[in-house]
Write a structure and sequence with these properties.
- This protein has 14 helices and 19 strands.
- Strands 3, 4, 5, 6, 7 and 8 form a six-stranded antiparallel sheet that branches.
- A hairpin with a 4-residue loop joins strand 17 and strand 18.
- The relative contact order is 0.18.
Length: 487
């Protein structure tokens, strides 16, 4: 391709969350201008009128996989003509890798414009809430609400339950009836497309009672560190703990992260809670910045490593701690995670493990398990961005094989529930309570259940201990890939 290592890996973005799956992890630099556009090899020969025809778009996807896919021996030989869209063809090509648990729908085609908007500022359209399905009580629960979005303005916040959905007050259908008729996919259908102006009547229940509210979807920017609870100091028993909740790794988080760690440093706080419970990943450049902010005493030491397939080994790189003015040297860190914690979140956790050892823990539930990431290659004239799994990540010790999540790698992990009845950032919330317990030197009562079993073998009861069952559409948007359950 004639692309230098810097030109390719400097614009590699994070692997993403997909349809009920975790994902994420990639590399990227702030202000890089977006993914590099690469002419695939072999180059398709489109006619002027056919450049965006299905066959040409499929040829582009196949050429990217042939050149860059991390698992070239796990690609199927399938006919493009037997597939009516690009994504189904991609899915068929990488099916062997998926069967081996290496690529759980992490290779896909998406929109250049949509993804650029999300990674720059968290731009999205919708109600602005994260939704989980409570099968026992036949309702949808709000796990998180974004302050600048329509739902929050309508009084919908964490812990609110949606019990019925309609396009108007005359055709409200209960969640139970929708699921009975159409399964959980019926819920995403009932909520409608994520287009500005789409309106729904929602029957909600919260501490004030039950009522019907009308909410119209709109464009909004997702604040990666909430002004309400995203960064704060929790003081108990004469001790202070830093709390940081990062929703997603996007470039607009960088200054917020610096401000949070500057505050921790100014107050002499070195015991830190980092809440990644719903963070599906994002820019690895932002993940590397987090490492730098926790590496005041580790300048020049390896934070993370990136490894491509042998034919692309010239692209391999490592990120070494590069402390900045706001950096601190944490004494202990408690990471909060769930099955929605993936990608760049896992990269940060895994990369800190060799340096903190037993002074670090994972609280909540097992993470998703995605030690691989994608590069982005564009067919710009068609607004096609091909996200292909192209590299694996590892920490300074070379450990990166956490396809079954990170809990098996962290011996003192601590199981805790995600208590939706308590606000995020509140020390009464179960996972935060367990994190404070670890930082205070208290022993964990229960190690994360199913830690050695992996995602495929988790029991329903074990999963429900620590994570909501996030709702996801079959074909998620760029924002929904990074933020499972976002609507």
């Amino acid at each position: 391709m004639g692309k230098s290592k810097q030109s390719v890996t400097a614009v590699t973005l994070a692997a993403l969350m997909l349809a009920s799956c975790g994902g994420g992890g990639g590399s990227g630099t702030t202000g890089s201008g977006g993914p590099v556009t690469v002419t695939p090899t072999p180059t398709p020969t489109p006619t002027p009128t056919a450049t965006c025809a299905l066959a040409s778009r499929q040829a582009f996807a196949k050429a990217v996989i042939d050149e860059w896919y991390l698992f070239p021996n796990d690609v199927a030989n399938v006919s493009a003509a037997s597939h009516s869209n690009v994504q189904s063809y991609i899915d068929a090509l990488v099916a062997p890798a998926r069967a081996l648990n290496k690529d759980r729908f992490f290779t896909y085609i998406t929109s250049i414009a949509e993804e650029n908007a999300f990674f720059a500022s968290g731009s999205s359209a919708g109600f602005g809430v994260r939704l989980s399905y409570d099968a026992v009580n036949q309702r949808i629960l709000i796990a998180e609400a974004y302050e600048s979005a329509p739902a929050f303005a309508a009084g919908i916040d964490r812990g609110t339950a949606i019990v019925a959905i309609g396009t108007n007050s005359d055709n409200l259908r209960t969640v139970a009836n929708i699921v009975a008729a159409e399964g959980t996919a019926g819920l995403t259908n009932a909520l409608g497309p994520n287009d500005p102006g789409v309106s729904r009547v929602l029957r909600i229940t919260d501490a004030t009672g039950t009522r019907d509210v009308t909410v119209a979807k709109a464009n909004y920017s997702l604040d990666p560190v909430s002004d309400r609870y995203g960064a704060k100091i929790i003081t108990e028993g004469g001790r202070s703990f830093g709390y940081l909740n990062l929703r997603t790794f996007i470039s607009s988080a960088n200054d917020q992260l610096k401000a949070a760690f500057a505050d921790f440093g100014a107050r002499g706080v070195t015991d830190i809670i980092i809440d990644f419970r719903y963070n599906g990943g994002g820019l690895v450049s932002t993940a590397n910045l987090m490492g730098d902010l926790m590496g005041a005493n580790r300048a020049g030491q390896i934070f993370s490593q990136t490894r491509f397939r042998p034919t692309k080994s010239a692209e391999n790189e490592e990120h070494r701690f590069t402390p900045v003015n706001q950096s601190i040297a944490p004494t202990r860190i408690a990471f909060i995670g769930t099955g929605s914690t993936a990608s760049a979140s896992e990269l940060v956790i895994n990369s800190m493990l060799p340096y903190l050892g037993t002074n670090m823990t994972l609280v909540g539930g097992n993470t998703y398990g995605k030690p691989v990431g994608q590069i982005a290659l564009d067919k710009a004239e068609c607004d096609d961005r091909m996200r292909v799994v192209a590299f694996a990540t590892a920490n300074s010790a070379g450990s990166g094989d956490y396809y079954d999540g990170l809990a098996p790698k962290i011996t003192n992990s601590c199981a805790a529930s995600d208590d939706l009845t308590v606000p995020l950032g509140d020390p009464r919330e179960a996972s935060i309570r367990a994190a404070i317990g670890f930082l205070s030197g208290n022993a964990c009562t229960t190690r994360i259940a199913d830690a050695s079993a992996g995602p495929a073998a988790r029991s329903r009861s074990a999963r429900m201990l620590a994570e909501p069952e996030m709702l996801t559409p079959e074909r998620p948007s760029a924002a929904q890939r990074e933020l499972p359950g976002l609507f």
